[in-house]
Amino acid sequence: QDTSGTQSQNNSSIVQGGVGDSWEVMATLEGNPGPITALASIGNILYSASNRSFKVWNVDTMQSISDVAVNNSNMGSIKSLTIWPEKNIIVTACDKLINLWDLVSLQSIGVLRAHKDEVRCLYVADDLLISAGKGTPNSGSILFWDLRSTSPLEEREKNQDIFTLQTHDNMLYYGGRNRYIKRLRLSNMEVFPQFEPPHLDAVSSLAIIENSLVSGSWDKNLRRWSLGQEVLDNAVQYNAHQTAVNCLSSDINQKYLYSGGKEGAVKVWRLHPDTRR
Fold first, then answer.
1. Cα–Cα dist 159/142, whole Å
2. How far apart (Å, rounded) are the C-alpha atoms in residues 211 and 224?
């Protein structure tokens, strides 16, 4: 076990976004070896990936309880991490490979191969594992899996560069290098108009909290979108991190939003009700 992670409290914890909601930093978790590349949580346990390892945190104590290294020298940095609770699996993405880990023992249990280029993001929706990354003119950027086969069920969005995935009410939301958030209906793969306005740089991360979609970007900002209206609901947190926002996650109780920055810090946020003046 590794308990080297430290917690630092923000003395001025209420941070006013440009307009609209207030964003409160509850804690900053440090101790990762480099930029935070992925976050996932289940219950009071938070997982953060950095370089070729991921840490396991107890959110109640804000302390690190385990550190898992990718020992295969042929694998690069972990670009994405998600939890598949129904199958007791942690899923990580390194280079073109999707790696499966036992949720309890934290041991490697399998590898999926199909992407032609780097896998950048992962998401679990019911019985589906969705992976996405950099596509080619002949191969999809988004792949759908059900683990009954080591081959994907379907491919979508050829020749795109997708960085992040999120689902809500049968809709798949995704964003990437082109700065926009796009969406499709999972039941029939119908594509809908993209969100406006775009971020100022690539969309790196998406999370659902309180029936809203939060997007993070290399522009350092967080944006909160009202689902159902698909518009920016006047809640922007400028300069949420010192550097690019790399990843986002929210807990199952929709109590906290977690953000990971390129500088190596994880921030724990509480989003307050609208306080427009």
1. 10
2. 10
